[in-house]
Task: inverse folding
């Protein structure tokens, strides 16, 4: 009988070293820097080649699909077991204790953007495959690590991959929580833009020249900035410090070259649970809504604050819903942007229950006064039945290695598991550990990294033997 955790522990030093090297590559989306063969920029391409070069050196079969995606494969047989990972990470954000791409180790943890989501777990899964290969265990199916490069944005990597490659019969994504996630909410990214008549603001109005908050739909923005000008703008700064203190957030209002610059620092979090963060954009919008502001800006900021302040469940939008399998619908105003010359934009992320339909959500968004629904992308919910062989085998593995019940859970996050007909998310976050993905000082416990590698190794063997 294989002692999976003992075998993983033997490889701890190399696993940690490889994870650190991998995490030091800044694999953030850079479309402007994209080229043929590297569509998402230099950093992501460097991370992809790092993993593929390692796979080739270790004797795996590797294939790069035009820089959009790739795979690392071992075993024999007609059927494929998928291990779905991604190497792109969200922007690092502000306020880190150490360089977010230094992969510094402190107190038994690796701190880096991507340590938990998803480069740390990807390296654990890679070492799990390597462990099975080195032990010479007989596999009757091929095991294929499918590597995505655009998971944090538009999933163009998955779309490209499955245009050219076969669909695994089943598989897992090491990109969420243990024990087993068999239900994932539907994911909507929607863009709303202002529709205001062309008329100049009053000469007496305070002019909102620009307002910026957020970089991604799937992150609660931790920074918001605005620039105001015109007579009386300084009055809007009165009471700002008190407002910040009342809400437990940081910021400042300073005058530069005759203009007033506002800044709010919130708390970033993953959009699957916006209540874990503090949306800097909503806080700033709610404060700046004032009768002295020019009409267009006031209308836009009112829309932002009226529909999203103190409401992450869609009640004010009229889209509130829930079910027993996956819980509440959630809403995140990930992007709030305004320019005096161009008007405003709201980029919102909605995660809806697995038994719900998205049609009603789309219709409600179209009804928001003063806004136009410019785009609406919808990734349908995903659910694998508890009696499926994939679930049964992974439950066996988890319970044998942890001694704990392998309960089935649902999440608001979207993992690559949903790109498979039979796919689940499987770790790496153990019960009781805080979920700090997408937050500053993201980390993964080294103990958990090694433990996950042992679990993944047995899972790969049980699914492919």
Result:
């Amino acid at each position: 009988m294989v002692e999976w955790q003992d075998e993983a522990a033997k490889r701890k030093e190399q696993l940690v070293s490889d994870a650190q090297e991998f995490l030091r590559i800044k694999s953030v989306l850079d479309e402007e820097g994209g080229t043929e063969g590297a569509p998402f920029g230099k950093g992501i391409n460097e991370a992809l080649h790092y993993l593929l070069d390692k796979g080739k050196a270790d004797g795996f079969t590797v294939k790069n699909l035009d820089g959009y995606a790739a795979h690392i494969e071992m075993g024999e047989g007609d059927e494929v077991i998928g291990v779905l990972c991604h190497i792109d990470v969200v922007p690092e954000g502000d306020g880190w204790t150490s360089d977010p791409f230094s992969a510094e180790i402190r107190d038994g943890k690796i701190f880096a953007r991507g340590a938990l989501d998803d480069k740390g777990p990807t390296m654990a899964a890679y070492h799990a495959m390597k462990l099975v290969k080195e032990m010479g265990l007989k596999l009757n199916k091929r095991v294929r690590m499918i590597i995505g490069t655009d998971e944090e944005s538009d999933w163009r990597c998955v779309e490209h991959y499955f245009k050219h490659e076969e669909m695994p019969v089943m598989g897992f994504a090491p990109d969420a929580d243990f024990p087993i996630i068999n239900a994932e909410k539907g994911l909507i990214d929607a863009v709303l833009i202002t529709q205001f008549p062309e008329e100049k603001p009053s000469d007496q109005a305070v002019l909102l020249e620009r307002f910026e908050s957020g970089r991604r739909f799937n992150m609660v923005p931790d920074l918001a900035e605005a620039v105001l000008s015109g007579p009386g703008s300084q009055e809007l700064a009165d009471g700002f410090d008190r407002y910040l203190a009342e809400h437990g957030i940081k910021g400042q209002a300073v005058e530069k070259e005759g203009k007033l610059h506002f800044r709010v620092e919130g708390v970033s979090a993953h959009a699957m649970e916006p209540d874990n963060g503090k949306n800097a954009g909503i806080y700033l919008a709610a404060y700046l809504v004032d009768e002295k502001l020019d009409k267009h800006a006031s209308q836009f900021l009112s829309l932002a604050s009226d529909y999203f302040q103190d409401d992450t469940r869609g009640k004010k939008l009229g889209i509130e819903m829930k079910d027993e399998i996956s819980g509440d619908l959630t809403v995140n105003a990930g992007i709030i942007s305004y320019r005096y010359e161009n008007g405003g934009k709201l980029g919102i992320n909605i995660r809806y229950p697995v038994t719900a339909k998205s049609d009603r959500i789309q219709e409600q968004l179209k009804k928001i006064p003063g806004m136009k629904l410019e785009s609406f992308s919808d990734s349908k919910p995903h659910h694998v039945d508890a009696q499926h062989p994939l679930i049964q085998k992974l439950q066996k593995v988890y319970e044998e290695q942890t001694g704990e019940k392998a309960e089935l859970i649902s999440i608001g996050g979207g993992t690559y598991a949903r790109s498979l007909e039979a796919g689940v998310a499987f770790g790496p976050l153990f019960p009781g550990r805080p979920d700090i993905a997408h937050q500053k000082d993201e980390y993964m416990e080294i103990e958990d990294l090694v433990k996950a590698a042992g679990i993944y190794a047995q899972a790969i063997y049980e699914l492919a033997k």
